[in-house]
C-alpha cells in the first residue's frame, strides 16, 4: 500500500492560541480515513492544513510538514494553487456557484485553474456519475445549481472537486447540513471514490465514521490544543480501543 | 375548539402623538421631492407649454427681442446631450478606477494600507465641488490639454477625437476627467460594500479548486457583486449629471451638439442654469425652472434605478 | 523533542522576493530605455511605459517561474495596483495644491476684514473673508436647525415605528440624496423668492442646504439607531413606559454621540456647497449680520467670486479661501470620525 499524504508533527495556532499540537498521520492511497472527536478538538483546523486553506485566517500560523508524494506542500516556492488542485476539498455547507449552471459548476475547477477542457461531455458525465448525481441531473445540465436539493448540491460539489482529478479529497463534515437520506447517498459515493483516491473525512457522527472509513483517528482537546489520542483501523477503534478516552467517546459516554 | 383571541392594544395618547410626529418626519423627504417637482413644474409650465417637445430637442436659447419681433426660443437639447457626454466620459475613466480600487481594498491591499486608503476615499467624497473645479482649472487642465493633444495626434481617425480648431482647453474631455474623480468615491464605497458581502464559503470553494486570486474574483466576486457595482456606477452617473460648479469652472458652454469631445465646446444643463441665472428676465427664469425640472427628473430616475438595483443585490 | 514554534510558511521569504525585486529593477530599467530610445518622452511617457513594462515584466517573470495562470494573475494584480494608485494621485495633488497655493495667501487680518472696501486687484493681504465666515456660520447653523429634527425623525420612523411604509421612506431618502444641488437652489428660489416674494437671504441659502443635508443625517441616524440593542427598548417598555418615553429617555440618549456624528457628517456634506448659494444668498462683500434678509456671502461663494474676478490677487484670495474652507470641512470630518471611533465603529 502506498502512502499518498503524510502529516508530520503538525501544529496550528490562531494568534497566541495553540489549536492543534503535534499530529502525525499517514493517509494511504485508496483508503478512507475518518477524523472524529468532540467539537473544538482541532480536527477541522487540521484538515484545512492539509490543503493549505488554513492560511486564509489572518492570525493563523503552523509548524510541521505535509508531504504529498514525498514532497512538502509548505516548501517555499511551491505553487499553492497546484497543491489545491491535487488535494481537493468539500465543505460543510454545500456551496455550488450560483451564477453557474450545473455543467459549469462541474467544470468550474478547470476554468478557475485556467486549464484546457478536453472531452467536455465525457468529463461531465464521468464526474457526475462518480458523484452519484448523473441520473438525477443529466437532463437539466443547463439549469442553475441553486435549484438542486441540499444533498444534490453537495454531490454537485463533490463532482466539481473530481473534475480536476485530485489525488486526495478532503471532506469537512460533508453531511452535517443534510438529511439522513442524502447522507446515505453521499456515504455510498465516498465508498466508491475510495477505490481510486485518498479520502479524509471529518465527522462528528460516529456511525458515519464506522460506516465509511477504513481508518479512524480520534482527536481530543482537554482545554489545551487538540491532540491525536489514537489512530487505528476503524474496527479496532470501535471495538477494542487502546485508550480509555477513545472508548468513552465511541461508546457515547461523553462528547 | 377555542377560538384565538385577538389581542388589542389601545395606544396611549402620547404614543399616538409621537407616532404621528415621527411618521410626519419620515415622510418629509417624499413630500419635499413632490414639492420640488410641483414648484419647478408650476414655474416652468409656460415655457414647457409653448416649446413643447422642442424644449428637449432644440438647441437654441434665445430671449425674446420685442423690437425685432423675434419670439423667445428655449431648447436644452444641446445641454442635455452635453450632460450625457460628460456623464459617459466620467464613467469611462471613473468606473474602472473605482471598481479596481474597490477590488484592491478588498482583496489585494496589505492591512496597513487599507485604513489610510479608506480615509483618502472619504476625503475625496468630502472635497467641495468648487475645490474640484478650481483644481481642475488651474492644475489638471494644463496636463489634460497635453493628453488631449496626444489623443488627437494618434487617434484622430476616430471622429470623436477630431479637432476642427486647435482649441483644447475647457473641453468636455477635461470636464469629464474632473467629474470622473468626483464620482470615484461613490462607486468605490458601494462596490466595497458589495464585495464585502461575497459569501466566504464560495470564495473558499474557489480557492480549494486551485483558483488564483484573479480567477477567484472572476468566478465568484464579480458575478455576485455585478448588480451592486452597476448600481453604484449609476449613482455616480447621477452625481455627474447633476454636478454644477465644478463643470461650470472647467467647461466652455456652447449651444451646439458637437461630437468632438476634445474640443473646447460642451454642454451641461446644471452649468447652464448657473450661467444664465444672473441676468435672466422673468421669461428666461421660467425656462431655467423648466430646465431644472428636466435635470431633476433625469437624475431622479437614474437614482431610482440605481437604488433599486443596489437594494436588490446588497441590502436584501 | 523540541517544542515547535509557530511559522507562516505561506508568507514570502526574502529568497522568494528576489525575482520580484529583479522584476522591479528590470521594469524601471526598461522604462528608462524606452524613454531614451523611443519617441515617447517626458513624465507622462515615463509613467505610461513604466506601467506597461510592469505588466509585461510581471507577466513574463511569472510565466517563466510558474505557468500561464500565474502570469495572468500577476498581470491583473499589477492592473489592480495601478487603479489603486490612480485613486490616490488626484487627492494628493489637490491637497498639495491647496497647501502650496493657499498658505501664501493666508494672514491673520483676513479673519477680521471683509471685502467691502477692497478692490479685486488690491494686494492679497488687504481685505478678508470675515463676511464669508459669518455667512457660512449662519448657513450651517440654520441648515442644521431645519434638517436635524427631520433627519432624526426619519431615522426614528425607520427604526422605531417600522411602519409598512419603511421601505418606501428609505427609498425616497436615498433618492433625495441624489437631488442635484442646483435643483435644491432653484426650488428654494421658486418658493422663497418667486412665490413668497422675499429677497436673497442667509435663511434661504440655509433652506436649500437643509434639503441636501436631510438625507445624510437621516441615513446616518438610522444606522446609529439600529445599533441600539433591542433589549434596551424592551427593558423600557417592560417597565411600563410608553414608546414615546422609551425613545426619549432611553433610545435617544444611548444614541447621542452617534446622532451628533450624523449631524456633523451632514454639515461636512453641505459646508462646501456652492451652486445653491449662487441662487439663494445673492452674494455680498460686506458683513451682513441679519440672517433673515439681505444679500450675504459664504466661504464657497467667496471662493467662487474671487475666482470669477480673475485677477492674480483675487485668485490668490480664492486659494486662501479654499484653504480655510477645506480646513473647516476636514475639521468637521475628523470630528465625526473621532466621535464615530469612540463608539467603537471604524
Verbal overview:
- The complex is a heterotrimer of chains A (255), B (316) and C (346).
- Chain A is built from ten helices and ten strands.
- Chain A has 255 residues and is of the alpha/beta class.
- A six-stranded mixed sheet of chain A has the order 6-7-8-3-9-10, with helices on both faces. A four-stranded antiparallel sheet of chain A has the order 2-1-4-5, covered by helices on one side.
- In chain A, a hairpin with a 2-residue loop joins strand 4 and strand 5 (71-72).
- Chain B is mainly α.
- Chain B is built from twelve helices and two strands; from the N terminus they run H-H-H-E-E-H-H-H-H-H-H-H-H-H.
- Chain B has a two-stranded antiparallel ribbon with strand order 1-2.
- The longest helix of chain B is centred in the first third of the chain and has 32 residues, at 77-108.
- The radius of gyration of chain B is 25 Å and the shape is flat.
- Chain B starts with 12 loop residues before the first helix and ends with a helix.
- The model of chain B has no long low-confidence stretch (mean pLDDT 92).
- Chain C contains 13 helices and no strands.
- In chain C, helix 4 (130-161) packs across helix 10 (256-270) and helix 10 (256-270) runs antiparallel to helix 13 (312-342).
- The relative contact order of chain C is 0.11.
- Chain C has helices spanning 14-37, 42-65, 68-102, 130-161, 166-176, 181-195, 202-226, 230-238, 243-254, 256-270, 275-280, 299-309, 312-342.
- With 346 residues, chain C is mostly helical.
- The chains are: A alpha/beta (255), B mainly alpha (316), C mainly alpha (346).
Amino acid at each position: 500500500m502506498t502512502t499518498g499524504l503524510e502529516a508530520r508533527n503538525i501544529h496550528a495556532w490562531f494568534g497566541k492560541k495553540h489549536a492543534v499540537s503535534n499530529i502525525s498521520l499517514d493517509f494511504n492511497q485508496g483508503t478512507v480515513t475518518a477524523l472524529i472527536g468532540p467539537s473544538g478538538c482541532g480536527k477541522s483546523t487540521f484538515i484545512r492544513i492539509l490543503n493549505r486553506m488554513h492560511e486564509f485566517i489572518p492570525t493563523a500560523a503552523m509548524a510541521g510538514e505535509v508531504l504529498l508524494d514525498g514532497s512538502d506542500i509548505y516548501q517555499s516556492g511551491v505553487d499553492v494553487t497546484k497543491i489545491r488542485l491535487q488535494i481537493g476539498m468539500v465543505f460543510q455547507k454545500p456551496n455550488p456557484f450560483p451564477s453557474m449552471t450545473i455543467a459549469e459548476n462541474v467544470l468550474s475547477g478547470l476554468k478557475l485553474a485556467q486549464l484546457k477542457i478536453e472531452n467536455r461531455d465525457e468529463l461531465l458525465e464521468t464526474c457526475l456519475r462518480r458523484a452519484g448525481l448523473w441520473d438525477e441531473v443529466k437532463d437539466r445540465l443547463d439549469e442553475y445549481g441553486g435549484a438542486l436539493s441540499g444533498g444534490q448540491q453537495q454531490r454537485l460539489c463533490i463532482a466539481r472537486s473530481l473534475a480536476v482529478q485530485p489525488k486526495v479529497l478532503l471532506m469537512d463534515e460533508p453531511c452535517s447540513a443534510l438529511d439522513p437520506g442524502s447522507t446515505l447517498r453521499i456515504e455510498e459515493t465516498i465508498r466508491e471514490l475510495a477505490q481510486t483516491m485518498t479520502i479524509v473525512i471529518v465527522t462528528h457522527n460516529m456511525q458515519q465514521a464506522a460506516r465509511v472509513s477504513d481508518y479512524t483517528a480520534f482527536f481530543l482537546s482537554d482545554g489545551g490544543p487538540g491532540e491525536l489520542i489514537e489512530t487505528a483501523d476503524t474496527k479496532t477503534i470501535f471495538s477494542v480501543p487502546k485508550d480509555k478516552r477513545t472508548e468513552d467517546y465511541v461508546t457515547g459516554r461523553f462528547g | 375548539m377555542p377560538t384565538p383571541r385577538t389581542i388589542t392594544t389601545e395606544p396611549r395618547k402620547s404614543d399616538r402623538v409621537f407616532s404621528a410626529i415621527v411618521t410626519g418626519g419620515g415622510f418629509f423627504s417624499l413630500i419635499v421631492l413632490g414639492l420640488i417637482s410641483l414648484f419647478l413644474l408650476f414655474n416652468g409650465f409656460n415655457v414647457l407649454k409653448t416649446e413643447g417637445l422642442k424644449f428637449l430637442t432644440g438647441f437654441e436659447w434665445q430671449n425674446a427681442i420685442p423690437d425685432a419681433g423675434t419670439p423667445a426660443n428655449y431648447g436644452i437639447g444641446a445641454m442635455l446631450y452635453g450632460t450625457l457626454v460628460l456623464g459617459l466620459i466620467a464613467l469611462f475613466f471613473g468606473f474602472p478606477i473605482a471598481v479596481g480600487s474597490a477590488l484592491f481594498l478588498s482583496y489585494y491591499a496589505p492591512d496597513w494600507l487599507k485604513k489610510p486608503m479608506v480615509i483618502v476615499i472619504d476625503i475625496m467624497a468630502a472635497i467641495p465641488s468648487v475645490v474640484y473645479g478650481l483644481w481642475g482649472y488651474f492644475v489638471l487642465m494644463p496636463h489634460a490639454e497635453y493628453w488631449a493633444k496626444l489623443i488627437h495626434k494618434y487617434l484622430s481617425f476616430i471622429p470623436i477625437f477630431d479637432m476642427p480648431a486647435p482649441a483644447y482647453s475647457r473641453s468636455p474631455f477635461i470636464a469629464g476627467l474632473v467629474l470622473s474623480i468626483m464620482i470615484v468615491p461613490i462607486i468605490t464605497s458601494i462596490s466595497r460594500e458589495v464585495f464585502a458581502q461575497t459569501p466566504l464559503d464560495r470564495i473558499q470553494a474557489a480557492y480549494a479548486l486551485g483558483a488564483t486570486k484573479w480567477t477567484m474574483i472572476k468566478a465568484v466576486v464579480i458575478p455576485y457583486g455585478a448588480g451592486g457595482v452597476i448600481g453604484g456606477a449609476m449613482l455616480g452617473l447621477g452625481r455627474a449629471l447633476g454636478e454644477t460648479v465644478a463643470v461650470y469652472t472647467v467647461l466652455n458652454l456652447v449651444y451646439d451638439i458637437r461630437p468632438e469631445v476634445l474640443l473646447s465646446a460642451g454642454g451641461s444643463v446644471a452649468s447652464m442654469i448657473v450661467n444664465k441665472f444672473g441676468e435672466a428676465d422673468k421669461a428666461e427664469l421660467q425656462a431655467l425652472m423648466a430646465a431644472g425640472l428636466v435635470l431633476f427628473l433625469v437624475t431622479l430616475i437614474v437614482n431610482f434605478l440605481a437604488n433599486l438595483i443596489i437594494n436588490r443585490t446588497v441590502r436584501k | 523533542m523540541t517544542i515547535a514554534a509557530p511559522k507562516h510558511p505561506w508568507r514570502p521569504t526574502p529568497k522568494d522576493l528576489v525575482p520580484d525585486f529583479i522584476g522591479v529593477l528590470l521594469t524601471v530599467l526598461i522604462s528608462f530605455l524606452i524613454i531614451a530610445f523611443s519617441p515617447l518622452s517626458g513624465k507622462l511617457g515615463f509613467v505610461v511605459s513604466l506601467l506597461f513594462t510592469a505588466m509585461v515584466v510581471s507577466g513574463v517573470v511569472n510565466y517563466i517561474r510558474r505557468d500561464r495562470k500565474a502570469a495572468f494573475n500577476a498581470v491583473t494584480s499589477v492592473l489592480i495596483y495601478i487603479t489603486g494608485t490612480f485613486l490616490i494621485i488626484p487627492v494628493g495633488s489637490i491637497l498639495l495644491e491647496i497647501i502650496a497655493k493657499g498658505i501664501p495667501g493666508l494672514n491673520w487680518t483676513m479673519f477680521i476684514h471683509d471685502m467691502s472696501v477692497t478692490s479685486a486687484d488690491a494686494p492679497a493681504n488687504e481685505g478678508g473673508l470675515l463676511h464669508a465666515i459669518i455667512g457660512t456660520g449662519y448657513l450651517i447653523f440654520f441648515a442644521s436647525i431645519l434638517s436635524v429634527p427631520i433627519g432624526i425623525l426619519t431615522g426614528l420612523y425607520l427604526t422605531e415605528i417600522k411602519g409598512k411604509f419603511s421601505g418606501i421612506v428609505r427609498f425616497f431618502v436615498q433618492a433625495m440624496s441624489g437631488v442635484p444641488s442646483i435643483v435644491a437652489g432653484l426650488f428654494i428660489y421658486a418658493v422663497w423668492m418667486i412665490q413668497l416674494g422675499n429677497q436673497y437671504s442667509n435663511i434661504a441659502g440655509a433652506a436649500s442646504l437643509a434639503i441636501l443635508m436631510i438625507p445624510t443625517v437621516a441615513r446616518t441616524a438610522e444606522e446609529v439607531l439600529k445599533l441600539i440593542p433591542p433589549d434596551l427598548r424592551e427593558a423600557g417598555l417592560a417597565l411600563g413606559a410608553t414608546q414615546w418615553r422609551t425613545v426619549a429617555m432611553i433610545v435617544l440618549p444611548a444614541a447621542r454621540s452617534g446622532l451628533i456624528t450624523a449631524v456633523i457628517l451632514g454639515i461636512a456634506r453641505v459646508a462646501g456647497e456652492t451652486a445653491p448659494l449662487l441662487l439663494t444668498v445673492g452674494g455680498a462683500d460686506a458683513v451682513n449680520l441679519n440672517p433673515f434678509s439681505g444679500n450675504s456671502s459664504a466661504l464657497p461663494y467667496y471662493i467662487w467670486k474671487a475666482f470669477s474676478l480673475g485677477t492674480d490677487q483675487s485668485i490668490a484670495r480664492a486659494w486662501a479661501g479654499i484653504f480655510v474652507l477645506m480646513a473647516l470641512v476636514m475639521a468637521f470630518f475628523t470630528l465625526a470620525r473621532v466621535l464615530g471611533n469612540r463608539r467603537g465603529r471604524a
